[in-house]
Amino acid sequence: MIYLDNSATTRPYPEALATYTEVASKIWGNPSSLHNLGAQATRLLDASRKQIAELLGKTAQEIFFTSGGTEGDNWVLKGVAFEKARYGKHIIVSDIEHPAVKESAVWLIQQGFEVDFAPVDAQGFVDVKRLEELIRTDTILVSVMAVNNEVGSIQPIPAISDLLADKPTVSFHVDAVQAAAKIPTVDYLTERVDFASFSGHKFHGVRGVGFVYIKSGKKIMPLLTGGGQEDNKRSTTENLPAIAATAKALRMSMENLDAFVAKTAQMKRIILEELRTYPDVTIFSGQENFAPHVLTFGIKGVRGEVLVHAFENYEIYISTTSACSSKAGKPAGTLIAMGVPPKVATTAVRVSLDLENDMSQVEQFLTTFKIIYQQTKKVR
C-alpha cells in the first residue's frame, strides 16, 4: 500500500498512540475533580498545554483544546462575531476557505451579519489589495487560511498582517490546520494573528482533538457552555488522552519539520516534472509559495473520482482535493475561485506527501500513472 492522502489525515505516530493508551489506562481521573486522581490529570493537562504553546512560541494561557479544526473554525467565526457585534457586523473571509469557515460565514449572514469573500488570483493566492478594498469601518473579523487544503497555496499571512497592523479593531483569524508542522510557524502565526485553529490528526496525532490559539487579551464568546472548563471558554470534560497524544505528535512533527520540507519538496518536484511531460495533464499546484507536500493535477476528460479509484486498484491512495467535501461530487471550490472552468475542475486529484513516503513509492506512483494515462486514451 502507498498512502498519498496525508492532507486528509495522517497515520498516528506509534509514540502518540502509546501515549494515548497509557494516559487512558493510568491517568483516567477527571481534571475537574478535587481529589488526587483529578490533580494528577490536571498536571498532565497543564504540561500538554505548555508544551504545545512553547512549540508555537506562545504562552500556555493562549491555548484552548477543542475536538478539531472544524470546531475551532466554527468557534472563532461565530464566537468573535457575536462578541464584537456591538462594534460592527462586517466580516471578510477568503474565497478559498475550508467549508468549516465558509459555511460558518454563510450561517452568520443568516443571523444578520454581512460577509465579503476576498478573491484570489489564478494560482490560488489571496489578492491582498482587493482584500484591503473590502475593509470597512465596521469590519470586525478577517479570516484567511494559512495553507489551502485543495491546491497547497501558502497564503500571504505576513502581508495581510502588515495590512492589519494599524487596524487593531479588526480581529485576524488563521486556519492553520494544513500548516502546522508543514511550513515554518513564522510564516502563518505572526504577532498580528489573534486567533488560529489546529487539528491533531493532520500532524500524526489522533482524530477528534485540536486546539485554538487565542491571543492574550482577545475576547471570544464560548461556543459551548457548562462546567467552565478551559477558562470558561470551552466547557466539557477535556479529552486528556488525546490531548497528551497531540502534544507528543506536535513535538515530534516540529522536530522533523526541516526534514519533512526537504524530502517532500524533492518528491513533489520529481512527480511534477514527470507529469508535465504528459500533454493531457493539467497542473493546478506550483512549487514557489506552495506547500512542499501538496500537488494537485488532473487528466483531461477524466473525472477526479475515476482517477482516485483507478489508483486504488493498485493500492495507491490519493484524493479528489478536499476530503471533507469529496463525496459531494462537486468541483473543488478553490479551483472555481481561481477561475478554472468547472469541467476542468472536476478532473482534479490531490497527492499529499509525508516524511513516511519515499522515492520508491514515487517511482511506483509514476509507473502506475503511466499505465492509467494510457488506459484513459479514449476518454481524452
Automatic annotation (TrEMBL):
Q: Which SUPFAM superfamilies match?
A: PLP-dependent transferases (SSF53383)
* Keyword terms: Iron, Iron-sulfur, Metal-binding, Pyridoxal phosphate, Transferase
Question: In what residue span(s) does the Aminotransferase class V domain sit?
Answer: 2-365
Keyword check for Glycoprotein, yes or no: no
Give the highest taxon in the source lineage.
Bacteria
Q: Needs which cofactor?
A: pyridoxal 5'-phosphate
Q: Which GO terms describe its molecular function?
A: cysteine desulfurase activity; iron-sulfur cluster binding; metal ion binding
EC nos: 2.8.1.7
The family note in this entry says: Belongs to the class-V pyridoxal-phosphate-dependent aminotransferase family. NifS/IscS subfamily.
**Name this polypeptide is given:** Putative cysteine desulfurase
What gene does the UniProt entry assign to this protein? iscS
